[in-house]
Design goal:
The protein has helices at 17-26, 39-44, 62-70, 84-94, 100-106, 110-119, 133-146, 177-181, 233-236, 239-252, 286-294, 298-306, 312-318, 349-352, 390-400, and strands at 9-13, 29-34, 49-51, 73-78, 127-130, 158-162, 172-174, 190-194, 199-208, 211-222, 226-229, 257-266, 272-278, 329-334, 340-345, 357-360, 368-370, 382-387, 406-408. The chain has an eight-stranded antiparallel beta sheet with strand order 13-12-9-10-11-14-18-16, sandwiched between helices. By secondary structure, it is an alpha+beta fold. The protein has 15 helices and 19 strands.
């Protein structure tokens, strides 16, 4: 691949070995901004690194911009959720676009995000920011009153999420009024929203100059557990409609550069509803799946898309065709042990001999008690699959969700 001269330095916000390797491969001069404690090891490896507490706001926050400007940085690239508004604030100065910081906040605050989408004519569920349990209870009751629910009817679900957390962190489902009482008061404020039915999926769109350069459709087999990239044929057939929805989202949020990770719902009537959107590397190892399915380095794609100085000719040469460029279907399954005492790892032949199985990152745990998770919690490794038959890959990841990979104390007696 032909590379072009990269003027100045860029700042990578967050610790990501893959992104550092991508920057080196593309010829970028870069500075890594990492949480305190990580910079010393990087500096010993000859990498220009400084530390910053991304979760702390103070009057000294301008010091980060001053440090990076002194180092000659012209662009900040966010890698994780907590870094997004920092990149927005920095790039508002680096790129001389004062409104950029405000636009970045839309991608961090879930309530503001939903409101902006709604004002832009994008279909969303009914939502409300709730500051206390009483507000959530009132919202839950109003939703079900509007549906004319009476005693004995199954109630409509309500979802609650922290306003600024990444992905599924802190996600709870409210099925009854009693569920409201189980939420700690210090968890508020929250975003409450009605349940959106249908098939949930995500897109990973690389944007440059306000235009989609490449768009993946990632099918959730079971949200938070398993997925296939690109989508299997039924969902893939909706690609033109999905692309229009993503283009509408890009225009509504005035997204110019970088990668976005929106989530949508497709109902039985073929209507799309917007869930939420992130402006950073997606979770769930989705970048790895895209790379396996299409054969290009997704971290290099992130940097090329985020950089306003990337020539269009380089982007055209870098990205494959979204349909004909597919090399197969990649899937994964995140492994979550069931609650109880875990004592060891058990990888069955059923997995290793499966024709679509490629690798896993399961690890031998120290004996400890697995507690009930809030949201999806931390997984104990990932299973990766690849094949030419999308249904075979989908069936594999769905099946291995239910396989127990960890020994229990009771099993040893």
């Amino acid at each position: 691949m032909t590379t072009f001269t990269r003027p100045g330095k860029i700042a990578l916000l967050g610790y990501s070995i893959e992104t550092m390797e991508a920057a080196q491969a593309l010829g970028y001069d870069f500075v890594v901004v990492v949480p305190p404690g990580f910079e010393e090891g990087l500096q010993k490896e000859g990498i220009n690194a400084i530390s910053w507490e991304f979760d702390k706001l103070s009057q000294d926050s301008t010091h980060l911009r001053e440090q990076l400007q002194a180092l000659g940085c012209r662009l900040a690239v966010p890698l994780y959720e907590e870094c997004v508004e920092w990149a927005g604030a920095l790039n508002a100065v680096f790129l001389d676009e004062p409104r950029l910081f405000n636009r970045t906040l839309l991608l961090r605050d879930k309530g503001m995000m939903k409101r902006k989408a709604q004002l832009s004519g994008i279909r969303v569920g009914v939502f409300e920011e709730v500051d206390a349990p009483a507000d959530l209870l009132r919202f839950f009751r109003r939703v079900n009153e509007a549906q004319s629910r009476i005693e004995g009817d199954e109630l409509d679900l309500v979802h609650v999420k922290p306003l600024r957390a990444a992905g599924s962190v802190g996600h709870r489902v409210i099925r009854t009024e009693e569920d409201v009482a189980e939420i700690p008061v210090d968890a508020f404020p929250l975003l409450a929203e009605t349940h959106l039915g249908g098939q949930e999926f995500s897109c990973e769109a690389f944007i440059h100059g306000g235009k989609i350069q490449f768009m993946n459709v990632n099918e959730y087999v079971h949200l938070g557990y398993s997925q296939v990239t690109p989508a299997t044929p039924d969902l893939e057939a909706q690609r033109p409609k999905i692309r229009k929805a993503v283009e509408q989202l890009v225009k509504a949020f005035d997204i110019r550069y970088g990668v976005i990770h929106p989530e949508f719902f497709l109902d039985a009537e073929g209507e799309l509803a917007f869930g939420e959107v992130a402006n950073r590397v997606p979770g769930g190892h989705i970048f790895e799946l895209i790379q396996r399915a299409y054969g290009f380095d997704t971290y290099q794609a992130l940097l090329l898309s985020a950089d306003p100085l990337t020539p269009q000719a380089e982007l055209d040469a870098f990205f494959p065709d979204e349909v004909s460029g597919r090399q197969g279907y990649a899937g994964n399954c995140l492994v979550f042990p069931k609650p109880g005492v875990v004592t060891g790892l058990n990888v069955p032949d059923e997995l290793t001999l499966h024709p679509c199985f490629e690798k896993h990152s399961l690890f031998e745990p120290m004996a400890h008690k697995v507690i009930k998770r809030t949201g999806f919690g931390n997984h104990y490794g990932t299973l990766f699959f690849f094949g030419e038959d999308p249904q075979e890959v989908r069936d594999a990841v769905a099946h291995f969700e239910d396989v127990e990979f960890f020994q229990r104390a009771a099993q040893l007696t």
